[in-house]
Amino acid sequence: MSETARETAPRRSPTAGGYARGEETRARIIAAGLKVFGDEGYERASTRQIAREAGVMPPALQYYFDSKEGLHLACGQFIIDISTKGFTLTLEKAEAILAEGGVQDGLNALCDVLDALLDASLFARGSPDWERFAARIQSERDSPAGALIQARIAEPLRDICARLVAQATGSPLNDEARLRAMAIIGQVSAFHVYREGALQLLGWQDFNGPRRETIKAVLRAHTQAALAV
Amino acid sequence: MSETARETAPRRSPTAGGYARGEETRARIIAAGLKVFGDEGYERASTRQIAREAGVMPPALQYYFDSKEGLHLACGQFIIDISTKGFTLTLEKAEAILAEGGVQDGLNALCDVLDALLDASLFARGSPDWERFAARIQSERDSPAGALIQARIAEPLRDICARLVAQATGSPLNDEARLRAMAIIGQVSAFHVYREGALQLLGWQDFNGPRRETIKAVLRAHTQAALAV
DNA sequence: GAAGATATCTGTCAAACGATAAATATCTGC
DNA sequence: GCAGATATTTATCGTTTGACAGATATCTTC
């Protein structure tokens, strides 16, 4: 067997299959990515830092994810996967109501969508790292995962909310309906976009427990009042 | 005159005075900073890129601003200066009303504050570069200028709005008042935080002209309805 | 015009970055 | 146990970054 006939080692992990320990390493890198990207933001986070956090050497990131960008996208997909199961069901129900529901149905569906949005945004299954990353990619909309979230979730959500607002107010889908939808989404978004500021204003440490229901109740009341105008 | 007795050239510009062409160069660098930081964000923007945009050599940035961070802070201060004159007056009027006004006064003051916030956020005196930078630092809250804006403007604003909500609803300054204030600020914030998304949903190119008043009217109606609950 | 002050440019630095190739280690199935 | 597949590490690369020191150019005042 000559030197030149010898196959070189793979530069990238296999698309399917692979050893169990590779799966475990991959998950460990994603966890590290969620933490470091969440703490530092996309640009400031370095692949070396993430590798250190994961307990691997830097080229492992290229092996499993191709590039820094690929890892960021994988982290974004992870967040989408863990937070949108309930959310997707709610959106599907809303679409059905848009097809054949009335004013009150529209209002209820909108409130359900906003509840689900709050859950998806603030409570990324209980890990502070995940929550911080989720907040980051909402801010960094031109980062890889940020753009993914916009295309996959935020834009469809705006569209559905605008249609629900029109239905809930019995009015056409015009500029006013869309403006109102943006304003209503903004009420919910404030809590994750300005998370630290909101916690400070309220003197809270987190949004867990009964506070969650308190926030939802306030937002629901505001939404219903605003759309009764 | 020996070599060693010769004074070295200054590494930094003088605190006061300086030549007129120095003032002009300084302004040119700030303009370039607003553009590049606005386009790229703090971390991705490079001092070389900014220098190129300004038509100077990179060490000029250290000469006038000490560091990349110093330039970012100067840009933030620039935005604060051009956008908060009217805003500061409105906040002062609001403080007076908090001292001795009634429910309706509180509601009107709150609406005025929100109008002023929208003006400060969306219409940074008409330059797209300024607007983009202003949006950036709202997102990048841990960047130098982002932290400046939070400390100088966003936090005091939240506090005043919470107090105005309490006054406008004739209720104590409790968690609910603060939650409602966050929600109401969020309505306004949505338009600059999600600027591209809002413009897309609406099919608009910008928020200029009569659209500005349309947004304000919608937000005012929502705020009044929400606080009537 | 000269001296001192300010502004600008040239040249350079150390560190860090994302990424690649090659070598080595470990796993899996027969 | 062996061969092939997968995973991990070591060594290295070219480039970029923010910043500094020294040299030079320009401005201002007398």
Percentage of residues in helical conformation of chain A: over 70%
CATH structural class of the largest domain in chain A: Mainly Alpha
Poorly predicted tracts of residues of chain A: 1-6
Structural class of chain A: mainly alpha
Rounded to an integer in angstroms, the radius of gyration calculated over CA atoms of chain A is 21 Å
Give the overall shape of chain A: elongated
Percent in strands of chain A: under 5%
How many β-strand stretches of chain A? Answer: 0
> In terms of quaternary structure, what is this?
homodimer
What's the CATH superfamily of the largest domain in chain A, by name?
Tetracycline Repressor, domain 2
Biggest interchain interface, per-side counts? A-B, 47 and 47 residues
Question: In the CATH scheme, what's the topology name of the largest domain in chain A?
Answer: Tetracycline Repressor, domain 2
Looking at the overall shape, the CATH architecture of the largest domain in chain A is Orthogonal Bundle
Q: Could you say how many structural domains of chain A there are in total?
A: 2
Terminal-residue CA separation of chain A? 82 Å
